[in-house]
Amino acid sequence: MKQYQKRNRLYYFSALVAIVISTIFSVTLQFFKGDILDSALAGEISAAIRWIVLLLIFILCESLFYFLYARLTARFVTECTKMLKQDIFKSILQRSYVSYKKHPEGWYIAKYTNETDNIKDYYFQMLPLLCEILLKIIFVSVALFLLDARIAIFTLVLLTTPLYLPKLIEKQLQNAQSMQIKTVESVLTCIQDWLSGFEVIKNFSVEHNILKRYDEVNDHSMAAMFNNATWRAKSQLLTSLISYLSYFVILVASAWLVLSGAFSAGDFFVAIGMIDQLSYPLISLADILRALISIRPTCQSMQHFLWEYDSSIGSRALKTVHHDIHYDSVTFSYPDSAEPILRNLTFTIKKGGRYLLKGPSGCGKTTAINLLLKYYDADSGEIFVDGVPLSNFDNTYDCMTVVRQEAVLFHDSLRNNLTLYQDIDDDKLFQVLHAVELDKFANRNALSSTITENGTNLSGGEKKRICLARALLQNTDVLILDEPLANLDDVTASKIEDFLLSIHGKILLVVSHQFTQQKVQCFDGVIDFNEST
Fold first, then answer.
1. Element (H, E) at 225
2. In sequence order, what DSSP letters do the residues of 406-458 get, joined into one string?
3. Closest CA to 510 of 89, 520, 102
4. Tens-place pLDDT, residues 205-236
5. What CA–CA distance (Å, rounded) separates 163 from 142?
6. Angle at Cα 191 formed by Cα 190 and Cα 193, nearest 5°?
7. How far apart are CA 65 and CA 85, in angstroms?
8. H or E stretch including 354?
9. How many helices (H) and strands (E) are present in the chain, helices listed first?
């Protein structure tokens, strides 16, 4: 997390300058209080008034510079948190699809929300506060030495005792913090899964069962939160007790100096004010150290998360397909699978051709496509693109577009769902909407209309066609359609079939086990996985 502190060092050091000036005013005005008291006791009214005026000026200056410090600190924390969230989202997007699917969506959401908030509260906010407290301790300690070295040494020895406590229970604090984060991630993951299956829950009338399961995981999470808070409270209790005991001893010692004639009433008043200013920072310092210790595992975990992704941006990308794609004796099995799902798969597809990959569910059609998309590497054999092994490249996104069985639409305008925030002229959007027979959407009002998450305000056929239109706008050399006819009525499926067969000028790969038999003959090639695997 130090990289964010470094990138925002201007705000950080500006805040330190502001708090140094504020602290100087704060410490100096303590002496004015003693001078006011001594002047008043001596009957020097005019002198007392002058000290009061100076006191008010210094209080105003202290407040103004502390306000500036607070503003700069808020800017520092905000910018660090913003950069961290940007890097988290960037880390997620730069993972390969397979790497991304290793964790549930709730796990990533927990990283972006819960862990980020913890790092903001217990690391970013603690850094300037730690410097504020240390500066306060240094300045007040120097002032105490100027007042009386005996009181200064006595005060520092007693009041620093609570600082050792966080180290003594460091392991317990870290374990409690880590357990709380893990249980929150677990709850978020479960909620994400349940909400994605909301229709199933309602259809099977299992709301009671889901609530019961939620209560179990939520109780576990709250127990971990309570345990974490308990350890913090224990540490804070011990710190407070020792601090107050130390304060009492110092107070008695200062009173003894007054009785022995070593202190004036004003000096006693200044000493108590200084000790007050020193005791709170020292107690706060213990809390800050406790927070920094407990958040350390979270920071380390986040740092690992940010750098572990399999980046495909800027890597060796396949840009185009000039002639053909050839599968040469490709064999592949998933981890822990007893048998290969593909065995010695061999076929060739040529530029400009339309090909159907057919066969029953589970025969390996989608797996063959995922190998072409570089989601996995073949166990043996090779896929060649224009005679060059596909293993020479890291990704194929620049020349291949895939449309999956489940339509993926975002809660945004139709225009943004089609363009995915790229700058594409509306006339081109109208053209592609006409091509997929979505003429009712081919106008500016419709393009600006909102599509709800996953297109719940659209029919199944409309969702499929919008996804097809989006893929055509990508205009890559290879268009892959994975089960494009799934969950469609016969009339809509027939129209989709006709449209797919009208596509020319690129490699068209259609993965389907339900294409109309009469139209299968219109493909340039049919790869039957019952025969190939």
1. helix 207-259
2. S----SEEHHHHHHTT----HHHHHHHHHHTT-GGG-SHHHHHSEEPGGGTTS
3. 520
4. 777 888 888 888 888 888 888 888 888 777 76
5. 19
6. 65
7. 30
8. strand 354-358
9. 21, 11
Q: How many CA atoms lie within 13 A of 403 on its CB side?
A: 30
Q: Please report the DSSP string for 474-527 in residue order.
A: H--SEEEEESTTTT--HHHHHHHHHHHHT--SSEEEEE-S---HHHHTTSSEEE
Segment 53-61 shows an average pLDDT of 90
Nearest-5° angle of CA 10, CA 136, CA 78?
35
Angle (deg, nearest 10), helices 207-259 and 170-196: 150
CA–CA separation, 475 vs 478, rounded Å?
Answer: 8
Q: What share of the chain is helix, strand, coil (3-state, %, to 5)?
A: 65, 10, 25
Reported in sequence order, the residue ranges of 246-341 that DSSP labels E, i.e. its strands, are 324-332
Distance CA 103, CA 402 (A): 22
C-alpha angle 106-107-111 in degrees, rounded to nearest 5: 110
> Where do we find the tokens 């880390």?
91
Cα gap 515→500, rounded to integer Å: 11
Q: Are 165 and 239 in contact (CB under 8 A)?
A: yes
Four-CA torsion 296, 302, 303, 307, nearest 10 degrees: 160
Its pTM stands at 0.74
Beta bridge partners of 186: none
Report the side by side order of strands in the sheet with 478-482.
400-403, 478-482, 507-511, 354-358, 525-528
Read off the tokens for 415.
């225009």
DSSP 313: T
Mean pLDDT along residues 254-266: 73
Question: Could you tell me if 287 and 239 are in contact, meaning their C-beta atoms sit under 8 angstroms apart?
Answer: yes
Q: How confident is the model at residue 7 (pLDDT cuts 50, 70, 90)?
A: very high
pLDDT at residue 312, rounded to an integer = 46
Question: What length does the chain have?
Answer: 533
CA–CA separation, 347 and 527 (whole Å): 8
* Side-chain-facing half-sphere of 400: CA atoms under 13 Å: 22
Q: Cα 261 to chain center, whole Å?
A: 62
- Ordered alpha helix ranges (H), 148-169: 149-159, 165-168
- The answer on pLDDT for 298 being more than 60 is yes
User: Residue 355: phi, psi to the nearest 5?
Assistant: -130, 140
CA distance 492 to 307: 46
Q: CB–CB of 355/510 below 8 Å?
A: yes
Angle at 475 between CA 514 and CA 359, to 5 degrees: 20
**Rounded to whole angstroms, how far apart are CA atoms 339 and 4?**
48
Listed residue (331, 398, 406) closest to 371, CA to CA: 331
What pLDDT digit, counting tens, does each position of 144-158 carry? 777 777 777 766 676
